Amino acid sequence: MISVVILGAGNVATHLFKGFEKTNDVSVVQWYNRNASSLQPYSHLVDVTDNLEALKDVDVYIIAVSDDAISELSSSLPFEDKLVVHTSGSVSVYDLDMKLKRGVLYPLQSFSKAAKLDFANVPICIETIDKKSYPLLKKVAVSLGSPTKRINSDQRRVLHLAAVFVNNFTNQLYRIGHEITESEGAEFDLLKPLIKETASKIEDMSPFKAQTGPAKRNDKKTIKKHLKQLDNEHHKAVYELLTDSIKRTHGRKKL
Length: 255
Hints:
Shape: elongated
Number of strands: 8
Oligomer: single chain
Mean pLDDT: 93
Helix content: 40-55%
Largest sheet: 8 strands, mixed
Structural class: alpha/beta
Number of helices: 8
Strand content: 15-25%
């Protein structure tokens, strides 16, 4: 049984705790947060603390806090030569304090506390400086049922950047689409099958080949009509920017 302490109480930390609760291979023996009251709903399941000096001796310490807090928290840990990993996509493994055995356990997924999550659909990217620590960290990831991939900090940063485009930016486009439909009383739900079909296409083909729409086919008449429909200048700017991007990608002239 691999013993673990989780540090942090955000979305990632909460889902990791719930995931580990379902496995027989990893035991979360303690959960730390600087505000222990936020962990009270779980205090009947695990020892909670807001005192770093009271941290238990375990196999792996998982720091799941905001990116800006990772380095300082790792420096504040009252021990050395223990395996400490963070869960960030954009922070280098070398940002952890060098007194520690350092690693990264990066779950490449969007996390919301209220949403159910199946770790079988969460690739976990693993990095360790100490090669001997890798097998242990991989066992932690595999215990969740996740597919794992060994990558370095540069590859992880690129994946995180790409994730912002395919997840955060895409969700913002959903929001704009929602605003546009609401403006005329149309039902956004009617777009959901299209959203699902668009996402499923890239299971079988590249995003380049999956591209459709007026910008791809250089349908100037439809593009002008859409721009005329948009009375929100922000929405219009986004439409023009993405239309231009698609045209450049597929060999068409700029708007």
